[in-house]
Amino acid sequence: MIIPLYRVAGPSEYLAITGWNIPDIKLAKKALIHPGQRYVRVNVSPVNYTFEVQAMSAEKLPFLLPAVFTIGPRVDDDDSLVLYAKLMAPHDMSSNHVNELVQGIIEGETRVLAASMTMEEIFKGTKDFKKEVFDKVQLELNQFGLIIYNANIKQLVDVRGHEYFSYLGQKTQMEAANQAKVDVAEAKMKGEIGAKLRQGQTAQNAAKIDAETKIISTKRDGESKKEEVKVKSEVKIFENQKDADVAKAVAELAAQKAGWSKAAHLAEVEAKQEVSIREAELQVEVEKKNALTRTEKLRADLLSKATVEYDIKVQEANRNLYNNQREADANLYEKQQQAEAEKATAEAAFYTRQQAADADLYSKKKEAEGIVALAQAQGFYLSTLLKALDGNYASLRDYMMINSGTFQEMARINAQAVQGMQPKISIWSSGSGGATLEGGSGSGGSMRDVAEVYSMLPPLLKTVHEQTGMLPPTWLATLTDTAGSGSIAQ
C-alpha cells in the first residue's frame, strides 16, 4: 500500500499539482500528494530587474534609459497565478530565460515609445513617459501572469560618443550665468541712471525725452512707410505674375487650337484625297470593265483604241491625285506658318509683360531705398543739430522754425487776416478835472466818483451806437452829433 505524501509550501511559494483526479492544474499552500500525481513548488517572490535600455528619439538622437523594474507573479488573481504556473514554473524568476524575456519586453516597448517622442518631450515629461512604458510593458506581461510591482526610471544618460545631455547641461549653466550677469549689470545700470536722473535738472531731462520721442516717431514713420511700400510691391508682383500666367494660358490655348485646327483640316484633306483616290480607282475599274466588254465585242478592231483610252484615263487620274496632294501640302504648310506666327506673337507679348513687371519692381525697390535713405539723413541731421546746440531742444525748435520760414508765414497770415478791416477805436478818459455836481470841484469833493460815472456815459453810448447801431432808450439819454461827450436828458 502506497501512503500519500503531505507537502506544505513556504510563505512565498505555492504547490502546483497535476495528475490523477486533477483536470488541469491545482494550486495550494498545502496538500496530500497521491500516487499518480506530481507537484512543483512555484516561487511567487518578486524580483528586481535592472536594465540600461538604449533607445532613440524621434530626432534620431540615441540615449540610455537606466530602469529598475520589480516584477513578480500576480498573486491576487487565481487565473493569472495558474497561467504563471503553467508557463513560468519550470524556470526560476532569477534565471536567464526569465531575465531575457522581461528585458526583451521592456526594451522593445521602450524603444517603440521613445521613437514616437522628441527628446524634449521625453526629458520634460518623464512622469508621463514612465506611465506609458509601465502600461505598455504591463500589457505584454499579462499574457505570462506577471505584474509590475514597481518601476523606477532613472535620469537619461548619453550614449558613448554622443554628448547631447552634457551639452544641454552646459548650455543651461551658461544661460543661467549669463542671465545673472545681465541682471547684475541691469541693476547697476538702473542705480546709476536713477542717481544721475535725480541729480540732473528737470528741464534737461524733459528736453532729452522730447528729442528721443521725436527720433523714435520719425523712425516709426519711416518703418511704416517702408512696410507700406513693401506690401504694395508684393501686391504688384502678385498681380503681374497672375497677368503673366493668364497670358501664358491664353498662348497655350491658342497653340492647342491651332494644333486642333491643323489636325482637323489635315483629316478633312486626307478624307477628300481618299475619296478622290477611291473614285479614280473605281473609275479605272469601270473603264477596265468597259474596255473588256468592248474588247470582247470588237476584239479585232477596237483593241488598240481601248488600250489608248485606258492609258489616258490613268494619266488623268494620276494628274488629279498629284494636284490634290500638292494642294493639301500647301494648306498644311500655311496652317503651320500661321500657328508659328501666333506662337511668336504670344511669346513677344509675354516677354513685354515680364519686362514691364521687372521695371516696375525695380522702380518700387529704388523708391523704398530712397525713402529709407531720406529718413536716415533726416535723423542724422536732427541729431547733429541737437548735439551742436548742447541738447537744447528749445533752441533746436526755434532754429527749425526760423529756417523753414514759420515766423514769416505767421506774420503774413495775420496781415491777410486783418486786411480790409476798418475797426473803430474809442478812447475813454475821465481826466483829472472831472465834472462837478452841486458845487463840487474837479480836484475833489464828495460827489467826484458820481461825476466821473456820469461823464463816462456819453462816450459809452456813442461807441455802442457806432459799433452795433443800437440807440439808448429815450428815458436814459440822447446822443449828440458832436465829437464831444453826450448829454443826459432830464
Q: First CA to last CA: what distance?
A: 170 Å
Name the structural class: alpha+beta
Q: Give the helix tally.
A: 10
Q: Which blocks of ≥5 consecutive residues have pLDDT under 50? A: 432-443, 482-490
Helix residue percentage: 55-70%
What is the averaged pLDDT score?
77
Q: Give the overall silhouette.
A: flat
| Helix and strand element order | EEEEEEEHHHHEEHHHHHH
What is the radius of gyration computed over CA atoms, rounded to a whole number of angstroms? 58 Å
Quaternary structure of the protein: single chain
Largest sheet: 4 strands, antiparallel
- How many strand segments? 9
Strand content: 5-15%
Describe this structure in words.
- By secondary structure, the chain is an alpha+beta fold.
- It has ten helices and nine strands.
- The protein has helices at 78-88, 96-115, 119-124, 126-141, 164-199, 202-297, 303-388, 393-403, 406-418, 448-468, and strands at 5-8, 13-19, 22-28, 30-33, 37-43, 47-56, 62-73, 146-153, 157-158.
- A hairpin with a 5-residue loop joins strand 6 (47-56) and strand 7.
